[in-house]
Amino acid sequence: MYILEKAPAKINLTLDVLYKRPDQYHEIAMVMTTVDLADRLEFFLLDKDKIEISSENRFVPNDERNLAYRAAKILKERYQIKQGVRITIDKQIPVAAGLAGGSSDAAATLRGLNRLWNLQLSMETLAELGSEVGSDVSFCVYDSTALAEGRGEVITELPAPPQCWVVLAKPVQGVSTQSVYQSLNLDNLEHPDTEGMIKAIKTGDYDGVCNRLKNVLETVTLPKNPEVEQIKQQMIRSGADAVLMSGSGPTVFGLVQQESRADRIYNSLRGFCEEVYVVRLLGTHQTLD
Ligand SMILES: C[C@@](CO)(OP(=O)(O)O)[C@H](O)COP(=O)(O)OP(=O)(O)OC[C@H]1O[C@@H](n2ccc(N)nc2=O)[C@H](O)[C@@H]1O
Ligand SMILES: Nc1ncnc2c1ncn2[C@@H]1O[C@H](COP(=O)(O)OP(=O)(O)O)[C@@H](O)[C@H]1O
């Protein structure tokens, strides 16, 4: 018996950092949604009491460092599961890109094993377990559109934003999330209009969403990675309605309503950026088959 799960990438429509906490984390408020660029995970029951991971991607560890492995281990130990599992990851989301690929794989593992092992756990319980793996995993468990607060694990679900096309471009150099947070200067930050973004989403106001895209982590990643700013400028020149860096970066996304315009942006970026994707905004959980 085996189970299939899709693990979509996320983008940040807003990302605000409020203050540094006494633990190693920052208190944040961010509106996130999902796009149709997804890893695919397969889960096979094993008789032996073992978690096996495989992925063809050379940047993804095939051992206990894999976030999917960590999610499976937490679930297995917490519910004393004696069966083992083999997890194969077909990696489509660029790694260390600000698109939460690893977190989404961990979340898909929690959803998939909940079904494979027939645990009947609620989304809330899976999200709580996910927060032990990483700050973005709870959001990824819901796999929808949401406001994420706390260190990212306090989730308030939102409706899907207005439908549009999303052009994603990832510069070659990956970014370490931890070092971006560490380098952030909290003085004189221009904060996003989080409430305004939520209202724009709720009223289906596409222009309102575009006008409010903002990510305070750009203040760290942009000066260190000139390519990110170049890609932003190129997307604007080619007709994007709005552009922003996702998460800690370095991936940049541009929003457009017409497919022809998305194609134009894609073609204009192909020359100097190897990894470019045109995808639909999803914003709600999609079941496979
Ligand atoms: C920036 C964001 C935005 O969605 O995503 P990515 O760019 O990684 O996709 C998230 O806040 C990242 O979430 P995630 O990648 O799950 O972070 P974690 O593994 O929990 O933490 C990695 C490190 O980032 C820092 N960190 C993370 C979250 C937070 N609220 N404050 C922090 O200071 C901590 O130094 C932590 O050790
Ligand atoms: N299943 C996984 N997919 C991708 N990266 C993973 C996975 N498991 C562990 N990692 C590690 O997590 C790090 C961050 O990966 P990722 O989630 O893709 O980036 P981001 O946090 O920027 O969205 C990578 O350096 C990678 O080695």
- Beta-strand content: 25-35%
Helical residues, percent:
25-40%
CATH class identity of the largest domain? Alpha Beta
User: What's the SSE pattern?
Assistant: EEEHEHHHEEEHHHEHHEEHE
Kindly, what is the distance between the CA atoms of the first and last residues, rounded to a whole number of angstroms?
A: 16 Å
Task: Note the main attributes of this structure.
2 domains, 289 residues, binds 4-diphosphocytidyl-2-C-methyl-D-erythritol 2-phosphate, globular, seven-stranded mixed beta sheet, Alpha-Beta Plaits, single chain, Ribosomal Protein S5, domain 2, binds adenosine-5'-diphosphate, 10 helices, four-stranded antiparallel beta sheet, alpha+beta
Tell me what you see in this structure.
By secondary structure, the protein is of the alpha+beta class. It has two domains: 157 residues, 2-Layer Sandwich (Ribosomal Protein S5, domain 2), CATH 3.30.230; 116 residues, 2-Layer Sandwich (Alpha-Beta Plaits), CATH 3.30.70. 33% of the residues lie in helices and 29% in strands. It is built from ten helices and eleven strands. Strands 1, 2, 3, 4, 5, 6 and 8 form a seven-stranded mixed sheet that branches. Strand 1 and strand 2 form a beta hairpin. Helix 2 packs across helix 3. The longest helix has 16 residues. The two termini are 16 Å apart. The structure holds 4-diphosphocytidyl-2-C-methyl-D-erythritol 2-phosphate and adenosine-5'-diphosphate. The site of 4-diphosphocytidyl-2-C-methyl-D-erythritol 2-phosphate (SUD) has 20 residues, from strand 1, strand 2 and helix 5. It catalyses: 4-CDP-2-C-methyl-D-erythritol + ATP = 4-CDP-2-C-methyl-D-erythritol 2-phosphate + ADP + H(+). InterPro entries: GHMP_kinase_C_dom, GHMP_kinase_C_sf, GHMP_kinase_N_dom, IspE, Ribosomal_Su5_D2-typ_SF, Ribsml_uS5_D2-typ_fold_subgr. Keywords: ATP-binding, Isoprene biosynthesis, Kinase, Nucleotide-binding, Transferase.
